[in-house]
Design a protein that fits this description.
By secondary structure, the chain is an alpha+beta fold. The chain has nine helices and 22 strands. The protein is about 20% helix and about 40% strand. The termini are far apart.
Length: about 400
Amino acid sequence: MTTPRYSPEMWLDFAGRAAPAAVRGAVVQVSCETGIGGEADRLEIALANDGLGWLDHRLFALDTPVALALGYVPGEPQVLFSGQVTGTEAEFPADGVPVFRVTAQDRRTRLADVAPARWFAAPVPKFGVMPVPDLLVAPYLALEHGILPSVDRLGAVLSAALTAADVAGSVEDPSMRQRAVRHQHSKNTLDFLKGIAAENGWELVMEHDVDPRGFVLRLMAPEANLRPHAALRYGESLTEFAPRVSSVGQIAKISLRVWRPEVRLELTVSVGYDWDRQALSIEVAPGFGVPGGLQGAAYFLADEPVTLASAPRLLLGKLLPMLNRRTTAKGSCAGDPRIRAGRVLRIEGVGETFGGLWRVVSAQHVLDADGYRTSFDLRKEIWFDAIPKQAQGATRIQGGLLRPSSPSPYG
């Protein structure tokens, strides 16, 4: 008898060993969710617990390493999660079979458990202190908790340029040099790392399928990762798709207070994004306030003045995430292990506005009695604007159903 080509296959690993057949046979549902933005990825396994034998089983002890791979026969399952058991719970219903649930999260939880007070500066004789570059601080935060950092090359270049600007702009101003030093205070290490990543244009992505599995944290530069990993077409491989474009409540421009110590003058620098021209707009005005040409715009006003050198880092950390939240979508398809947080999808058959390249913000893979399916949250990024719509697979739908209407009598 030939095995169906699209028969889902699951592989579970506990403490470096394949799960026993009894465990695999008891699984009623497995759900894996991964995301970008710093929150820990999560795995949940539901086991039928008819004989109550799983309640005190040592296989599910806290901190036990666990990994999940999903795919289809006859192909090789792809690793989607590698982390540690962080909790268990049981359900004893009045009717039906008891259920035992095992929850696991990736190793970023180690960073969330600690919140030391410290600063990252290097003393320089006869000069004072200089900030330690983010390119060293961010990897250190991961390494001190046994996690291996991986920085994209383009992201490293951009971070080095931002650090050089910080140093150059604060050489003559000791107070600004102090402000450029990273201080961890009243924040756990994971939140501290998330803030550094945002100001360098990085996304935090756990690489579950890279050796050593579950220990590699990627500081990803989205602008260097624009090639699609999978293509989905509505009416075929794309089951559901719900895109949304909105500017309501979103900030398209921000304003910063920039201090020029050499002339003892404070400037207001306002930066926004022109969606029609797909370009940044910049205005500078003396004093602190809203430049006349930008009246009526929405702003984020920095709490303290920054230098012209440090302004780009703050702009990157505040403006870019806002721009990338303008166009978002939710979707689902038959189970596809290629769809993972941080990767790019090519969506076809949904017109020019909503078609083309999308970044996977989060992905959920579920395998149960109804089969294997994948759902996901997506976002359009300004980096995609540099690629022609047609090259993205975004095709305008011809032959609309609406006819030109007559002029309104109300003008």
